[in-house]
């Protein structure tokens, strides 16, 4: 093993990754450079992979590998899947397919959290507002539920906003737009219900 080589582990396989083309080796090569090499070796898109050193996820693509404590002979673990070959995208680019998968995962969480909770929340608030006795504790509980739902939706919107679609990634861009609109509509509904609760007289 050369003095610019580290070991990549992925799905039970081991690969040697060298940085001989960098004069200063691991002091110069960045996490982004490592990800590109991992992509070429495994076929896993950069957007779909996580690289771990000593059990911690390396996140800043612009940081040199030495900043993560990597040196010749270091071992890193990669998590990630090759894109589903049946995934249809406008570009046919595996990077776009991985973005579409990320968007789908975000929306799966939204649908899981709001599939029934939203309807239940609307019904509970409706019963509370129509009742003759508007208990302060019940109102507080409903307000807390509204705050929780708003926070979860904002997290989803932030996650979607963080997905950058390259030029030509029309499928991913359209799915992100649809997902943002869906999550924003839900957020607006929650805000409307919270507004009704706020103005309710006790």
UniProtKB/TrEMBL annotation:
Keywords: Chaperone. SMART domains: BAG. It holds the Pfam family BAG. One of its GO terms (cellular component) is membrane. InterPro entries: BAG_chaperone_regulator, BAG_dom_sf, BAG_domain, Ubiquitin-like_dom, Ubiquitin-like_domsf. Residues 28-85 form the Ubiquitin-like domain. GO terms for molecular function: adenyl-nucleotide exchange factor activity; protein-folding chaperone binding. PROSITE patterns: BAG (PS51035), UBIQUITIN_2 (PS50053). Residues 123-194 form the BAG domain. One of its GO terms (biological process) is protein stabilization. It comes from the Eukaryota. This is BAG family molecular chaperone regulator 1. It comes from Umbelopsis ramanniana AG. The lineage of its organism: Eukaryota, Fungi, Fungi incertae sedis, Mucoromycota, Mucoromycotina.
């Amino acid at each position: 093993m050369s003095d610019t080589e580290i070991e990549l582990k992925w799905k039970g396989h081991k690969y040697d990754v060298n940085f001989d083309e960098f004069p200063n080796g691991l002091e110069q090569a960045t996490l982004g450079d490592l990800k590109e090499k991992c992509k070429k070796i495994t076929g896993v898109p950069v957007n779909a992979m996580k690289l771990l050193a000593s059990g911690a996820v390396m996140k800043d693509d612009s940081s040199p590998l030495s900043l993560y404590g990597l040196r010749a002979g270091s071992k890193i673990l990669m998590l990630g899947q090759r894109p589903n070959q049946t995934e249809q995208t406008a570009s046919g680019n595996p990077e776009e397919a991985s973005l579409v998968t990320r968007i789908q995962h975000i929306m799966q969480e939204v649908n899981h959290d709001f599939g029934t909770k939203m309807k239940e929340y609307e019904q509970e608030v409706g019963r509370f507002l129509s009742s003759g006795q508007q208990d302060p504790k019940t109102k507080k509980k409903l307000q807390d539920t509204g705050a929780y739902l708003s926070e979860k939706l904002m997290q989803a919107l932030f996650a979607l906003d963080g997905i950058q679609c390259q030029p030509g990634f029309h499928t991913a861009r359209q799915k992100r737009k649809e997902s943002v609109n869906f999550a924003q509509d839900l957020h607006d509904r929650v805000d409307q219900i919270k507004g009704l609760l706020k103005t309710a007289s006790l």
